[in-house]
Design brief:
Blueprint: E1 2-8, E2 12-19, E3 24-25, E4 30-33, H1 40-55, E5 61-65, E6 69-70, E7 73-74, H2 89-97, E8 101-105, H3 106-117, E9 126-132, E10 136-142, E11 145-147, E12 156-157, E13 160-161, H4 162-166, H5 168-173, H6 178-196, E14 200-204, H7 211-214, E15 223-226, H8 233-241
Parallel strand pairs: 1-5, 5-8, 9-14, 14-15
Antiparallel strand pairs: 1-2, 2-3, 2-4, 6-7, 9-10, 10-11, 12-13
Bound molecules: beta-D-glucopyranose.
């Protein structure tokens, strides 16, 4: 089935048409910059203008969102605006665009895509997926089954949440070198390992395309692998979830 995968993020909103049998893109990836104070109104207008109208899309939509999403409804939106809390994304797509949509957390979407496509992930055991971008997204799969809405980016570290300490936004804001950022992220990994004891950690998000720059400085006891679908994982996983 062809599904439009949309990944709403703190710095950009991205989309592509995905073949859900293969997980491959059937269109170019399109993107618009996340506006200041990204309210639902601004984002839905952006989605309509940049994706739906341009692609003349009439099929199913999968939508990844950077917050807790239960039965298509948003329960948290740390890096968006509070106006998102309580929004049912599926209902909005149906009312505004007459489209069928399935919404889920962005890190869950990224994880679904990795479990589906990444051959180096073991089928059994605990797999932890961490996406590093504006926030820190986390998802856990036990024997291939998702435990949804794990919010380990909000674990407390040094009196604030972990994503304020070790996300890509933190690296940029504090102008950290790769070595400095990797040291911080390794502390976060140690914390995750203490809590979850995963067999494998899959490292994804925008910054995963630079994995070679810092992988030798990431310290953790379990195997850590680069997300195969890098920054496209959210789009692919969102599409896969909407079949
Ligand atoms: C949100 C998560 C999201 C992550 C990555 C965090 O701030 O709470 O739900 O997965 O950012 O976007």
């Amino acid at each position: 089935m062809d599904v439009l995968g949309i990944d709403i993020g703190g710095s950009g909103v991205k989309a592509a048409i995905v073949d859900t049998k293969s997980g491959q893109f059937l269109s170019d990836k399109i993107r618009f910059k996340t506006p200041e104070s990204p309210s639902p109104k601004k984002i839905f207008t952006g989605i309509e203008d940049n994706f739906l109208s341009k692609l003349k899309w009439k099929g199913n939509v999968g939508c990844a969102f950077p917050g807790v999403v239960i039965k298509n409804k948003v329960y948290s939106a740390a890096n968006m605006t509070k106006k998102w809390v309580g929004i049912n994304i599926k209902k909005k797509f149906s009312q505004k665009f007459k489209l069928n949509c399935k919404a889920l957390n962005d890190a869950d979407a990224a994880g679904i895509s990795e479990i589906f496509l990444n051959k180096s992930i073991p089928k059994k055991g605990t797999v932890m997926v961490i996406t590093v971008g504006t926030g820190l997204g986390t998802s856990i799969f036990v024997d291939g089954k998702l435990v949804p809405n794990i919010e380990f980016g909000h674990l407390k570290m040094y009196g604030d949440c972990a994503e304020k300490y070790a996300s890509n936004l933190a690296r940029k804001k504090l102008d950290l070198s790769w070595d400095e950022w990797a040291a911080r992220f390794s502390e976060y990994l140690a914390y995750i390992e203490l809590l979850v004891s995963p067999n494998v950690i899959v490292f994804g998000g925008g910054i995963s395309k630079y994995f070679d720059e810092y992988k030798s400085n990431l310290k953790c006891d379990c195997k850590i692998i680069q997300a195969q679908n890098k920054n496209n994982a959210g789009i692919i996983g969102a599409a896969l979830s909407a079949v």
